Amino acid sequence: MNFFALNFRPRHARVIFFVAATLCAASSQADSLDFDKVFNDKAEPAQVYFQASYQLGADKHEVQVWRDRHQHLKRRTDDALETFIFKQPKELEWSMVVLDLKRKIRTDIDRTNLYRIGHFTDWFSMSHALSRPAAAYQLTMTDKPLLQEKPVDNCNWYSLTRNSTESKICWSKKYRLPLLITDSASQVQWRVTKLSSKPMAASTFDIHDDHFVRNNANEDIHAD
Question: Whole-angstrom Cα distance, residue 69 to residue 171?
C-alpha cells in the first residue's frame, strides 16, 4: 500500500499534491540544460558572414550578417535597413548606427539609451540570432526532425520550450550559430543559406551615409 495512504488523512491531500508537484517541477528544471552553457560564443571563428531567411508572422525576410569578433557587427535586412554596432573588447556598452536605406535617414543610439526606451537587446542576440529566454524554459537535446531543408553545415539539435511553445534549434558549435530553427509543427522559421569564416576586408564596416538625414537619438533621449 502507498506510504501516503497509510500515514495521511484525506484533509492532507492538498499538501501531498503540492509537495509532489513541487518535486516534479524541481526534477524538470534539473533535467533542463543551461541556455548559456549550450548557446555561447566560446571558440567561435574570429569572423563570420552568413545569409539567412526567417519567418515573422505571414512575412518572409532576408538578412545578411557580418560578425567581427566582439568589436564590429553589420546587419542588412531586406535591402532596406543596415545596422552597425561598434563595441570595445570586454566592454558591455556599444554604439549602434541604423541606416534606413529607402528614406535616407541615419539614426545613432547607444546601448544604455536603447534600454532607457525599453528596447532590451544585447550583443549576443544581435550577432548570433538567438535570444536568451527572459522567463522559465526547458532545454533538452533532441533528434533531428524530418525536414526537406538540410542545414548548410553540421549541427546538434535541441528542443527549447518557453510558455508551452516549443522550438527546435540546429546549433552549430563550429560557427556558434543556429543553422535551422523550426516551430513545434516542424515549420522552418529560420534558415541559414550561406555561411563563411573567411577574413573580411576592413572596409566591410564602413558606413556609407552620404546625403542621409542624421538623427542623434542619444541627444533626444537625454533632452527628455
Answer: 19
Which CATH number among 2.50.20, 1.10.760, 2.60.120, 2.60.40 corresponds to the domain 35-199+216-223? 2.50.20
pTM of the model: 0.80
Joined together, the cell numbers standing for residue 167 give 522550438
The pLDDT tens digits of the residues spanning 50-73 come to 999 998 888 899 999 999 988 899
The CA-CA-CA angle for residues 101, 107, 110, to 5°, reads 135
